[in-house]
Amino acid sequence: MKKTDISKKTVIGRLATALVSLSLLIGSVFCAPVQVFGEGDVAGADEMTTPEEVGREGLAAIPAEDVPEGEYEVDVDSSSSMFRIIEATLYADDDGLRVEMVMSGKGYLYVYPGSGQQAAQAPESEYIPFVENEDGAHTFTIPVTALNEEFQLAAFSKKKEKWYDRQVLVYAPPRIENKGLEPATIEAEDGSYEIEVSLDGGSGRASVTSPAVMEVRDQKATLHLEWSSPNYDYMYVNGKKYLPVEAESGNSLFEIPVYAFDEWTDVLADTTAMSRPHEIRYRILLKTSTMEKMQEESNMSILLFAIMIIAIFSIATVAAVAVVTATIVRRRNRQKNETESEK
């Protein structure tokens, strides 16, 4: 055998060995989870905007197992104005809860259920990438263990190439009862009050009467909420369904419990004004600074009634006196005439 043939075989063997090693290396890269970020890829407190508090007063957590199966429109709070959710849909099924969040921008590539440090140490297979919806917006679909309860969510910035810590909270929709939520307590005497009501949501065409009448009994309040239309046939407040009561105006009027003052309360109202019934999410806000007891009006009514009674009595008295006087005058005239005729 020639020396050149041996050299060729040696080169080919070495090349084959190198190719096999390279294939194994590539296979290990794609088949095994790898850490792609490190501690230096987590944003520090000085790199983030001041965190905002999420949630509202009086919220009680609702575990996933207490949420009936279905699809719900929900609100989601974020602790950062740089991570803003413009709309969200909650899905409840046998696999638990998950929420699809539509983001206001396209600045984040991944999210991770946990802290930024945990995300940086996790394999890429555990990251949740964005999905572009039909409108071109970025969406993230994440698991949720409970409603009305904040949790950590790390978000990876495309521009900064760092993980940012966020706090997120998914509010329970009005159709789901929050068993731990009690009607609000108000330090006010029993009686009828007027209170200003703000309405948010829907198309903006609907409105409610403000100020509205509110009844207080044993420090609990019932709101008489009157819509600007007669087409609302039911409402949901904290998972409970309410039907309209009769109203003099003909518009839809509901008597609903008050669960919060000076805080937005989510409600659901069904309208029949469209081609088919349609449930619309609204929020109402009651401002305690505008509360006025309706006692003055009651006193005025009593006073007017008393004046009317006195006036009627006075008129009746004057009329009676006039009748008696006229009768006496007629009698005297008759007696006078009879006396003159006898003469």
| Beta-strand percentage range | 25-35%
**Overall pLDDT level:** 84
Sketch the topology as an H/E string, one letter per element. HEEEEEEHEEEEEEEEEEEEEEEEH
Helix content: 10-25%
Count of DSSP strands = 22
Biggest sheet, strands in spatial order?
2-4-5-9-8
What is the 3D shape? elongated
Measured between the Cα atoms of the first and last residue, the distance is: 187 Å
Largest beta-sheet details = 5 strands, antiparallel
Q: From the helix content, strand content and strand pairing, which structural class follows?
A: alpha+beta
Instruction: Indicate the radius of gyration in whole angstroms.
Output: 38 Å
Low-confidence stretches: 22-34
Number of helical segments? 3
